[in-house]
Write a structure and sequence with these properties.
The chain is α/β, with parallel strands linked by helices. An eight-stranded mixed sheet has the order 1-2-4-3-5-6-7-8, sandwiched between helices. Helix 9 links the parallel strand 7 and strand 8. The chain has a single domain, classed as Alpha/Beta hydrolase fold, catalytic domain (Rossmann fold). The two termini are about 20 Å apart. The chain contains ten helices and eight strands. It is about 40% helix and about 20% strand. The longest helix is centred in the middle third of the chain and has 27 residues.
C-alpha cells in the first residue's frame, strides 16, 4: 500500500501540520483523529489496515490529519473563546490547505467523504455540515455533536455557534445550505450502546436531522458494542462498502 507523509507550516494555525495519505487512486476519504491524537493514530490502531482492501484496489485514497483538540476543546486551561477560535482556525486550515492538496491529487472537483471516531466524529461531521458543497458526506462513529460539553456553561460567541452542529443545524432555514443537505445521500451516524458509548447523543442529533428533512442513516449497534477500536475497525469498512457498491 502506498503511504505518503507530507508536512507544512500552517498559516492558519501557526504550527507545523503533517498528514499522511494512503493509496494511489480512488475516492478521497478524510480522517479526523480521536481526542488529542495525531495523524498516525488510525494507522497505529489498525483502522487503516481494516480498510486496506479498498485502498489497495484503488477505490479509496485515505488522508489522515492532525487535530488541534489538545489546544482547543481538551485544553482545560484555555478560555472558551480561545477554544472555539482554534476550531475556526482549524476549519480554515482544512478548507484552505488540506482540501486543495486533496484536490490536486484526486481531481479539482473531488468531494471527500469525512470520517472519525469519538471526538473525531464531531470534527468530521462539523466539517461536512459546514461545507456540504465541498464534501460528499460523513461517517460519524460514536460521536457527540454539541460542543457545550467542552465549554464553560453560558459562554457564547459566533465561533461557538458556527462550530456547534447541534446549534447551527437547528436554525438552518436558508435557501442554500438546507436544500443541499436535504438532498444528501451519504450521512451516517453510528454508535454502539455498550461501555462508554452515549447513544442518546446520536439519537438526539438524528432527531434534529429528521426535523429538518435531512436524509441520513442512524445505526445503533448492540449493547455489547463499546467505545473502542475493535468496533470502529468493523464500522468503517462496513459503511465504506455500502457507499462503494
Amino acid at each position: 500500500m502506498r503511504r505518503d507523509i507530507t508536512s507544512w507550516y500552517s498559516h492558519n494555525l501557526n504550527m507545523e501540520m503533517p498528514l499522511v495519505a494512503y493509496g494511489h487512486a480512488g475516492f478521497p476519504l478524510l480522517m479526523f483523529p480521536t481526542a488529542a491524537a495525531d495523524y498516525l493514530e488510525y494507522e497505529r490502531f489498525y483502522l487503516v489496515d481494516a480498510i486496506k482492501d479498498f485502498i489497495e484496489a484503488g477505490l479509496i485514497r485515505a488522508y489522515s490529519i492532525n487535530s488541534v483538540n489538545k489546544y482547543s476543546l481538551l485544553n482545560r486551561e484555555s478560555h472558551p473563546g480561545w477554544k472555539v477560535e482554534m476550531l475556526s482556525r482549524y476549519d480554515n486550515y482544512i478548507m484552505e490547505e488540506v482540501l486543495p492538496l486533496i484536490r490536486n491529487e484526486c481531481g479539482e472537483d473531488a468531494k471527500p467523504l469525512t470520517t472519525g471516531a469519538s471526538l473525531g466524529a464531531f470534527l468530521a461531521l462539523n466539517t461536512y455540515f459546514k461545507h456540504s458543497d465541498n464534501f460528499r458526506g460523513t461517517i460519524a462513529m460514536s460521536g457527540s455533536y454539541d460542543i457545550y460539553n467542552y465549554l464553560d456553561k453560558g459562554y457564547f460567541d459566533d465561533n461557538v455557534y458556527f462550530n456547534n452542529p447541534d446549534m447551527y443545524v437547528r436554525h438552518l432555514n436558508d435557501d442554500f445550505h438546507l436544500p443541499r443537505l436535504q438532498n444528501a445521500d451519504s450521512i451516517v451516524i453510528v454508535t454502539g450502546q455498550g461501555n462508554y458509548e452515549a447513544p442518546d447523543r446520536s439519537r438526539e442529533f438524528s432527531g434534529l436531522l429528521h426535523s429538518k428533512g435531512i436524509p441520513h442513516r442512524l445505526d445503533l449497534w448492540g449493547h455489547d458494542v463499546a467505545h473502542d477500536w475493535v468496533w470502529w475497525r468493523k464500522m468503517l469498512p462496513y459503511y465504506l462498502g455500502e457507499f462503494l457498491r
